[in-house]
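Slide 14.
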Amino acid sequence: MRRRKEHRAWFSIANRFQRKILTLVFLSTVVPMIIAVVCLYYLTFSIVASEIGIPEAIGYALIPAAKRTAGIAIVGFLVSVVFIWMWAWEVSHRLVGPLDRLCRELDERIAGKKKGYIYFRKKDYLAMLVGRINALLDRLK
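Slide 15: predicted structure.
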């Protein structure tokens, strides 16, 4: 009998656990980004203008420079957030998917619907745990 290949949808959030992981990654990248852009804007305009003691006309000339600096920083941070998000998405899929599958496979064995070993893909996490569960199943036979 041939095993059916298990595939997860790449553009979905599997469960609450994965949603929490992705929310943590999102907040840990976006919140510092917002703080950094606000600080950079404030630094460029307010502190530099007041410390140098330049007239108002020159100070208002700094506003476009501060906006451009903040715009460049926002674009750079957004690009980094996208790359970090893609990496977090892949890692969370490789963690949450096998965890769901392991629970489903164990439930089927507990109910007596299935017998034998549990198999995972090579790149999935939790393979070490599955190896130990298979050893336990071997001992219980």
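Speaker note: DSSP finds three helices and no strands in the chain.
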